[in-house]
Design brief:
mainly alpha, 2 domains, two-stranded antiparallel ribbon, 2 strands, elongated
């Protein structure tokens, strides 16, 4: 769907909503662009997946594969590990087993945390992860640059800015994000998405 304005025009509208304090307009513009990049990364996280539930299923499969890989590597004697990890000189180079095991452990822990906090409720209304992150970014931008107090009033700067950010990344005009802005303190950036389980206060 075509938008009313170009991306640059929408960013200018976002700047107007924030009304950054004197001397911070350029920094605010830079942060808006950075926020949009972060939102687009979240938007791309579910490309090709029908739901966060499907993503959770796949990430759990990935966790099992990582654990199996770590277990198999650990079964080799250090001398055998040296033969496996020494690499091809110049072309590939050696692999540090200690670092590899540490990286595997961190990846497993990160994936387990992500899977734990991806919630899905049967029959529950979907909680749009992109709108969710737009709300977080709008809150952060206003808190950092705006001289006015953050308000969750429908049609206020907060809800309007969140909707503008969402329009830029989605191309969908006039989406009401007030339900996502009701309690900005609830926004949890480590949650990739929620379906159900997200209580509205």
């Amino acid at each position: 769907m075509a938008t009313r304005y170009s991306k640059d025009e929408l960013i200018d509208l976002a700047l107007e909503e924030i009304a950054p304090i004197d001397g911070t307009k350029d920094a605010c513009h830079e942060d808006i662009v950075g926020a949009l990049a972060a939102i687009e990364r979240v938007s791309n996280s579910f490309d090709g997946l029908s739901s966060p539930g499907e993503f959770k299923k796949r990430i759990n499969q990935f966790i099992k594969s990582l654990k199996k890989t770590r277990q198999l590597l650990a079964q080799f004697h250090p001398a055998q590990q040296n033969l496996i990890f020494r690499g091809v000189p110049v072309v590939i180079g050696p692999v540090d087993p200690t670092r590899l095991f540490g990286d595997l452990d961190r990846m497993i822990a990160t994936c387990e945390f992500t899977a734990k906090h991806l919630r899905s409720g049967h029959g529950a209304k979907p909680w749009n992860s992109v709108k969710f992150i737009c709300t977080l970014c709008a809150s952060n931008l206003l808190s950092k640059f705006s001289p006015t107090r953050l308000s969750t009033t429908k049609g206020g700067h907060f809800t309007t800015l969140a909707s503008l950010l969402y329009e830029i990344v989605s191309g969908e005009e006039g989406r009401d994000l007030s339900a996502y802005c009701e309690n900005p303190d609830r926004v949890e950036p480590l949650y990739v998405a929620k379906i159900g389980g997200a209580r509205r206060r």
